[in-house]
Every structure is written in C-alpha cells, then in structure tokens.
Write a structure and sequence with these properties.
This protein has 192 residues and is an alpha/beta fold. It has a single domain, classed as Rossmann fold (3-Layer(aba) Sandwich), CATH 3.40.50. The chain contains 6 helices and 9 strands. The strands form 2 sheets. Strands 5-4-3-6-7-8 form a 6-stranded mixed β-sheet, with helices on both faces. A 3-stranded antiparallel β-sheet has the order 1-2-9. α5 links the parallel β6 and β7. The longest helix is centred in the N-terminal third of the chain and has 15 residues. The protein is globular, with a radius of gyration of 16 Å. It starts with a helix and ends in a 15-residue tail after the last helix. The structure holds zinc ion. The site of zinc ion has 8 residues, from α6.
Length: 192
C-alpha cells in the first residue's frame, strides 16, 4: 500500500482501521478509514480543509455544501479557508435535500466537499440537488479518493490522497471465509 502523508496522518490518529468491514456498497473490506476520528483533531481538520480549499479555489466556489454526516466537519473547514459559508445536505430517501433553512442562490457557484469518496454516490446526489435548486456545481473536493479512479462527476474532482484498498464481494471475501465477524462502521444518519 502506498502511503501519502495524509494516509500516514490517518494511521497516526488511529483512523485507519484494520479488520472486516461492510461498506455502504454492500462490499466487504479489510481496511476502513474513519474520518471522524481523524477530524476529531481540530488542527488536523483545519490543515486538511486549507489543503482542499487550495485544490478547488481556482473554480471560485461561493458556497460549500457537504453530504451529512461524513462531509460536515471537513466542509466547514474548507469553507473557513475559502471565506465562504458552509451548508450540509441530508439524505431523504433516495435523494438529498437542504433542511434547517439552508438555501442556495440561483447561479451560485458551489463546491461539494466529502470526506471519503468510495462509489461517489452521495456526491452525485448532492450535485443533482444543487442543480435542482438552481445552483451551479463547480468543484468536488474530498480528503481521500478510494474509488480506484472510478468516481467521475459533472464538476472537476480533487482529493488530497488516493488509496486503493482491498474490496471483496461477500461471496468471495477471504475474511468471511475465515469466519471473522463483520463490522459496520457506519457513517450515515445523525437522526433528525
Ligand atoms: Zn467478508
């Protein structure tokens, strides 16, 4: 496994978990990135936010929107670095929505910020939501791209690190074969 500095920071923070995990996609993996642990250090969160802001500022975002829950903290830090406001979108069934009085101006340039991009599904839904609301998605930024280069979006995508991790279908998972208990680290839902 290659180890860019950010991945080493995750490791040092205890945010790179080894075991047997169920991903949102239904696939199994032996390695899980728990961004909430990494971001629980505010200094690391600020530094990472500044770095992502540096990658997307050329697209001149006027607003940051993050998918809840995973993107909220890093979205806030990117917005701090850009000097713009930070909103988060919440999953409602098969789509995302802005709640809590959050609004996007018509034609407003929006950067979408996520912690980890695995399949890119949540980001795609947030991009669709922004267009529905009349905003203009101009960039996608993430801490880590673990899609193996498969995540493509309607706006330019930048991440601080790319990491290819072992991913198994349940019927071909060597960890299942060993009888290791499956953990669901979970990153969805704070409730209402
Ligand atoms: Zn398994």
């Amino acid at each position: 496994m290659d180890s860019p500095p950010l991945i080493r920071s995750y490791e040092k923070a205890g945010a790179l978990l080894q075991g047997h995990f169920l991903l949102r996609s239904g696939m199994h993996t032996d390695c899980y990135l728990q961004s909430a642990i990494f971001l629980s250090n505010p200094d690391l969160a600020t530094i990472a936010g500044e770095a992502i802001a540096g990658l997307i500022q050329g697209e001149k975002p006027e607003l940051v929107i993050a998918p809840a829950v995973g993107g909220i903290v890093i979205g806030q830090e990117v917005a701090r670095a850009l000097g713009c406001r930070a909103l988060f979108a919440e999953r409602t069934g098969d789509s995302f929505a802005l709640r809590r009085g959050f609004e996007v101006g018509v034609g407003e340039r929006v950067g979408v910020i996520e912690d980890i991009v695995t399949t890119g599904g949540s980001v795609k839904l947030v991009l669709e939501m922004i267009e529905r609301l009349g905003g203009r998605p101009v960039a996608v930024g993430a801490l880590i791209d673990r899609s193996g280069g498969r995540a493509h979006f309607a706006a330019p995508f930048h991440s601080l690190a790319a990491l290819n991790l072992n991913v198994f279908t349940p019927d071909r998972c060597p960890l299942c074969a060993e009888g290791l208990p499956l953990e669901k680290p979970g990153s969805r839902g704070l409730g209402a």
